[in-house]
Write a structure and sequence with these properties.
This protein is α+β, with helices and mostly antiparallel strands. About 40% of the residues lie in helices and about 10% in strands. It has one domain. The two termini are about 20 Å apart. Bound molecules: heme C.
Length: about 160
């Protein structure tokens, strides 16, 4: 429980940071590529950056549909990233959504996903919400629009989590 609160706090900080950088960009500072404020070196890898911010150093767009905002969970306000629900350590956990609702996000460290998931099954889960067992993931898990290269970077990052 404590872990999920920490994850939530971090997600909120990341969200607020993104929002304030958006505002900076709108004032025309124009210093940051890709419309975000994460300068080079802020993350150890592009995969880590994607995990924490939903932005890619390639400048390719990453967006999502569905997710808790669509299902009535408005807490995040800003933009979601994997970390918002799967925690900084990738292990996921239980989130209290208010109104006695809980959301169980999964452990998505690569060591936990494999061997059930390979790169293609991971893509199908992230992009289409398709579980390897043939069922659909719950709508709390957003459906992501993300390039194959960015997905590969994300997998490389998930492999570093132990
Ligand atoms: C708003 C919360 C939320 C965000 C943001 C989110 N997820 Fe999820 N994710 C979930 C939930 C909840 C589940 C479990 C769904 C279920 O049980 O059907 C899940 C499940 C998954 C699964 C399937 C795991 C399994 O064992 O079945 C993968 C893979 C996954 N998420 C990857 C990601 C990635 C990669 C990102 C970032 C690009 C991301 N998620 C962002 C909530 C989220």
């Amino acid at each position: 429980m404590k872990k999920s609160i920490a994850a939530l706090m971090l997600a909120i900080v990341v969200g607020i940071t993104l929002i304030s950088f958006d505002a900076t960009a709108q004032r025309g500072s124009g210093m940051m590529g890709g419309g975000t404020g994460w300068g080079p070196g802020a993350f150890r890898s592009n995969g880590e950056r994607i995990y924490f911010t939903s932005t890619s150093e390639r400048g390719t767009a990453i967006s999502y549909t569905s997710g808790p905002a669509a299902t009535g969970w408005m807490m995040m306000g800003g933009r979601l990233a994997c970390v918002s629900c799967h925690a900084p350590d990738g292990r996921g956990g239980r989130h209290n959504m208010g109104m006695m609702q809980v959301m169980d996000s999964k452990d998505i460290r690569w060591s936990a996903l494999s061997p059930e998931f390979d790169a293609e099954k991971f893509r199908l889960a992230v992009v289409n919400g398709q579980d390897p067992d043939g069922t659909q993931l719950k709508p709390e898990m957003p459906r992501w629009k993300i390039s194959d290269d960015d997905l590969a970077d994300l997998i490389a990052f998930l492999k570093t989590l132990s």
